[in-house]
Amino acid sequence: MNTLKKSLSDHRLTVGSWLQIDHPLIPEIIAPAGFEWLVVDMEHSSMGLNDVMGMVMSIEANGMTPLVRVGENDANLIKRVMDIGAHGVIVANIKSRKEAEAAVNAVKYPPVGTRGVGLYRAQKFGRGFEDYKRWLTDHSVVIAQIEHIEAVGNIDEILTTKGIDAFIIGPYDLSASLGKPGEFENPEVISALGTVLEAAKRNGIPAGYHSVSTCAGDAKKRIDEGYTFLAFGVDFMFFGDLACAEMANLMGGR
Question: Active-site residues: which are they?
Answer without folding.
Answer: 44
